[in-house]
Amino acid sequence: MKKYNCNNTLEYAHEFRRMCKTFRSSRGQKICKGCPLSELPCDILSVASEHIRRVQIWSDAHSEITLTDKQVAIFKALDLIGFRYIAKDSNGAVYAFTERPRKGFEAWGRNGEYFNLKSKYLRAGVFDAISSLVDWSDTEPLCIAEALEQVEANP
């Protein structure tokens, strides 16, 4: 996962655009609700230290993901059968979930189906290919659809 330093002008501009894309409707209309810059002048030319701080916080929480061809294939397969998120428990086990899980004391969980990616029913290498994308220290599960969208938007 790529981390950006928003004090760098080019990296700020990249993350500003990426963040703004997440707060647009399917028709491209701006939706400011929930946007970290909604209370500030919001265009690429309005840059103050508070803009940089807010975009950096958003960027750190929404790391840009680069996936290998194998990871893309695995994510597409998981998405096809209804799994939407992946997360790693404190013991290193990686699970795919049909619904957004919540982080508990030692594990991720929620209502809905889940599947251990180190299962004997999966091809060898699935766990190894995916496990590096998530960590127990993550505050949010990795959304499979968002990861695939990033890959398609940045080939």
Overview of the molecule:
With 155 residues, this protein is α+β, with helices and mostly antiparallel strands. 35% of the residues lie in helices and 11% in strands. β3 and β4 form a beta hairpin. The protein starts with 8 loop residues before the first helix and ends with a helix.
Key features?
155 residues, alpha+beta, four-stranded antiparallel β-sheet
Structural class: alpha+beta
SSE string: HHHEEEEEHEH
Order of adjacent strands in the largest pleated sheet: 5-2-1-6
| Uncertain ranges | none
Task: Report the end-to-end length measured between terminal Cα atoms.
Answer: 15 Å
Work out the number of β strands.
6
The biggest beta sheet, please?
4 strands, antiparallel
Shape: elongated
Q: Which secondary structure elements does this structure contain, and how are they paired or packed?
A:
Blueprint: H1 9-22, H2 49-61, H3 69-80, E1 85-88, E2 94-97, E3 102-103, E4 108-109, E5 114-116, H4 126-130, E6 142-143, H5 144-153
